[in-house]
Amino acid sequence: MGGEHNQFEPGWEVPNDGVYREIGEHPDSEGILHARELHLHKGDRFPRTTNGNRKWTRVKNGDVKHRN
C-alpha cells in the first residue's frame, strides 16, 4: 500500500499512539483558535471534530501546546 496519511477523518482508526490536533480543511488554516488536542492510542477511533469540515493531524513532540 502507498504512503502514510498525515490528515485523518473522524471515525478512522488511529494508526499510532500520540497527540492529535484538529486542523482546518485548508492546508493554510492550521492556526485554529482553541483547537482540540487529544492523546489517542493505536486502534482507537478518531472522535468527531468541533466543526464538520475539520480533520485530525498528529502533533510532533515539540509542537504540543501546554495548557496551564
Automatic annotation (TrEMBL):
Residues 44-68 are annotated as: Disordered. Pfam families: YjzC. InterPro entries: YjzC. It comes from the Bacteria. This is YjzC family protein. It comes from Alicyclobacillus tolerans. The lineage of its organism: Bacteria, Bacillati, Bacillota, Bacilli, Bacillales.
